[in-house]
Each structure stands twice: as structure tokens, then as C-alpha cells.
Design brief:
Elements (H helix, E strand, L loop, with lengths): L3 E10 L2 E11 L4 E5 L6 H9 L6 E6 L2 E2 L10 E4 L11 H11 L4 H14 L15 H13 L5 E5 L7 H18 L2 E6 L2 H7 L2 E6 L2 E6 L1 H6 L4 H6 L6 E10 L2 E5 L11 H8 L5 E6 L4 E18 L2 E6 L6 E6 L9 E6 L5 E4 L5 E2 L3
Parallel strand pairs: 3-8, 3-9, 6-7, 7-8
Antiparallel strand pairs: 1-2, 1-4, 4-5, 9-10, 11-12, 11-13, 13-18, 14-15, 14-17, 15-16, 18-19
The chain binds adenosine-5'-triphosphate.
């Protein structure tokens, strides 16, 4: 088993800096998701771990071994891409067996391992079939199996589920997690799909514009985003961020949010953190499921009610300055009504308006 250490890693293509800075230690046996919008540098980071790209500066270590100049084949990594690389002229069995044959394992061992992985990935009924005619879903499952069968210490997956259909994606999320638990590989998983990252990863590394924004457990990054980018990127809908300014009333500290009114007094630790700062301009943040709305004459206008099955997203405010609140679907609120907004005080997160950085409780 192997840990991966990315030290001050950067990557430029000509004058364009695809990865501006990356410092990340992935522990032995850990499942880390690199999550971020398209073009943020996830694949570039992954390709450098795999040995397909050389870093412009910085270092990659697997345990204590510096990977500079070590070819892909010598790194001991398994790599699965968005576009499965399958030998279409071979059967499913032969595709799975390929890596073991290259390693010259005895035939009985190859047969045992092919059957075991086929069973695990539900490929047993297709073992004799030619790969050329398989569906996209099955091909991607096969691609994962083909890489996993050689039991690499490090398993890299770059958007492996983006071409498969939604129902199959849900199944594969569970299976990939099981696979990693069973083989205990160090797993790095590139995705722009937060659901995949949230459900599978031990830790998520959120990236934007070539910069690592935050790392933490899925719950940590969701509940305590380091900045407004992470706050808005995670969650569906993302965290509400309302422009406001700090005001002190007697012994209380609260946030004046213009049309959204004044907040409840901030909890003690957050109030202390805000008082300690010179700047007054903040973003008042809270998750859409951490607030309630009650019909109130003269309250905030409700301008859109989005029904999504069990839940309803209610949009309040004046269009562009909207706040979204997620409620049960029997809430009785309709567009055109007005309502009072109450935010769970423990769920309030504040961000510096200029830097976007979280104002942490002290
Ligand atoms: P996506 O999910 O769209 O692949 P990503 O986060 O994986 O996004 P990268 O593929 O790492 O992003 O690309 C980061 C940036 O670097 C992008 O702007 C991309 O156009 C650029 N880039 C990547 N590879 C090269 C290259 N070989 N030459 C020039 N620019 C490149």
C-alpha cells in the first residue's frame, strides 16, 4: 500500500498555469476525490500522479519514493478513464486476464482472479462474450475490473462514470466504494459530480482555477466551507450567501442584510470572531435546508416555488438577490405570497466580503 504526497506541485502549458499550487497528502488506503468545475486542473493533477505529465515544479512522492522521471509503467498505478480503454477484439474474460498474463501469473491463478472480479462486478454472465458488442455501462465496468484485477497499490479514476446512465451510476458508486474497501487501495477519483465525491470519498479536495481550495471529509467541507467558492459549489442548491454588514446593538453582534433585514444575534464564538476584525462587510451564509419560512403579511416576497418531489425549493427575495430555502413539499407556500425567514443560528457561516474566506469562530 502507498501514500501519495503532492508537494508544491504546479503545471503550466506554455504561459497558461493549469495548476497554480497543490499541496496534498493522500494517506495509504485513503479514498480522495478531486472535485471541481470543468477546467480547474483535476485531470492535470491526476495525469501527473499517473506519470503521463511531468510537473512544471514541485514533487510527487509515493511513500518515500520521488516519482520524478519514473515512467507510468513503473509507478504501480491502475488508471481508469472516462473513455474505457478496452480491447474490443477480445472477450470479457481475456480483457480481465490481460494484465495478469502480462505479469506472467500461472493460468490457475489468472482463472481464479478473473472469476472473482467478474463475480464482484457482475460480469460473470458475459465472460465469454466479445467486448465489441457490450453496452457502455458494461464496458466501463469491465474497464474498472481490468485495472482493479492487478491490485495496484494506487488506483486512479478520472470521471469513470460520466458516460454511463444515471441508474447505473448510482449502482457503481456503491460498487466502487466496496471495491476500495475490499482491496484497500489508495484511491484518487476525479469528478465534477459532487454526489459522487460526497458518497464515496473519505476526503474531498475541492479545486477551482488551478488552486486547491479546501480538503476535508465530505461533511466537513459541506458544513464548514473554507470560502464562498466551496460554499456555493457544494450543495444543490449551494449555500445562500447574502451581502451584509456587521452591526453591534448593545452586547449583541448581528448582520444587517438590507432587504432581508437584520439577522438574529450571532452565537457567542462567531460574534467574538467578527468583533476582532476591522472589516465590516461580510457574506452571511446558510444552507437552504437550515432555514424556515412562515407566511407573513409584509414579509419577503416568494417569487418561485420549485417542486422536486419530496422537497420544495422556495425562492424568496427580489429575483437576483434570491435566497433558496428547501422545505417539505406540504409547506403550503406559493409564489406571490410573502413570508418570514428564520435561519437556524447554529448553521450561520460568515465570509469576508473582500477575500471570500470564512470567518472562523474563535
Ligand atoms: P475537465 O473535467 O473539463 O477535464 P479538469 O478540471 O480536469 O476539467 P484539466 O483537464 O486538468 O481540467 O485542465 C485544466 C486546464 O488546463 C484547462 O483550461 C485545460 O484547457 C488546460 N489544459 C489541459 N491540458 C492541456 C494541454 N495539454 N495543453 C494546453 N492546455 C491544457
Amino acid at each position: 500500500m502507498t501514500s501519495i504526497h503532492l508537494e508544491n506541485l504546479t503545471k503550466s502549458f506554455g504561459s497558461f498555469q493549469a495548476l497554480k499550487t497543490m499541496e496534498l497528502k493522500i494517506e495509504d488506503g485513503e479514498f480522495v476525490a478531486l472535485l471541481g468545475p470543468s477546467g480547474c486542473g483535476k485531470s492535470t493533477t491526476m495525469n501527473m500522479i499517473a506519470g503521463m505529465e511531468e510537473p512544471t515544479s514541485g514533487r510527487i512522492r509515493f511513500d518515500d519514493r520521488d516519482m520524478a522521471g519514473v515512467s507510468m509503467g513503473k509507478r504501480g498505478v491502475g488508471f481508469v478513464f472516462q473513455n474505457y480503454a478496452i480491447f474490443t477484439h477480445m472477450s470479457v474474460y481475456e480483457n480481465l486476464a490481460y494484465g495478469l498474463r502480462v505479469r506472467k501469473l500461472p493460468e490457475s491463478e489468472i482463472d481464479r482472479r478473473v472469476k472473482a472480479i467478474a463475480e464482484f462486478l457482475q460480469l460473470t454472465p458475459m465472460l465469454k462474450q466479445p467486448s465489441a458488442k457490450l453496452s457502455v455501462n458494461i464496458l466501463q465496468r469491465l474497464a474498472i475490473g481490468r485495472s482493479a484485477i492487478v491490485e495496484p497499490a494506487i488506483f486512479l479514476l478520472d470521471e469513470p462514470l460520466s458516460n454511463v446512465d444515471a441508474a447505473f451510476r448510482a449502482v457503481m458508486r456503491t460498487e466502487l466504494k466496496h471495491l476500495q474497501r475490499q482491496f484497500k487501495q489508495t484511491m484518487v477519483y476525479v469528478t465534477h459530480d459532487q454526489l459522487e465525491a460526497m458518497t464515496m470519498a473519505d476526503r474531498i479536495a475541492v479545486m477551482d482555477h488551478g488552486v486547491l481550495q479546501q480538503t476535508g471529509s465530505p461533511v466537513e467541507v459541506y458544513n464548514n466551507p473554507a470560502n464562498t467558492f466551496v460554499a456555493g459549489f457544494l450543495g444543490s442548491p449551494g449555500m445562500n450567501l447574502i451581502k451584509g454588514s456587521v452591526v453591534e446593538e448593545g452586547s449583541s453582534v448581528l448582520i444587517d442584510m438590507g432587504e432581508f433585514g437584520k439577522s438574529a444575534p450571532l452565537p457567542g464564538a462567531l460574534a467574538t470572531a467578527v468583533r476582532a476584525r476591522k472589516t465590516r462587510d461580510v457574506h452571511y451564509g446558510f444552507r437552504p435546508e437550515q432555514a424556515s419560512l412562515a407566511a407573513l403579511e409584509g414579509g419577503l416576497p416568494i417569487f418561485f416555488v420549485e417542486r422536486i418531489g419530496a422537497r420544495t425549493i422556495v425562492h424568496v427575495g427580489r429575483d437576483k438577490a434570491a435566497v433558496k430555502v428547501v422545505l417539505d413539499n406540504d409547506n403550503g407556500l406559493e409564489a406571490g405570497m410573502t413570508a418570514r425567514l428564520d435561519v437556524n443560528p447554529g448553521a450561520v457561516r460568515l465570509f469576508d466580503a473582500a477575500s471570500g474566506q470564512a470567518i472562523r469562530e474563535v
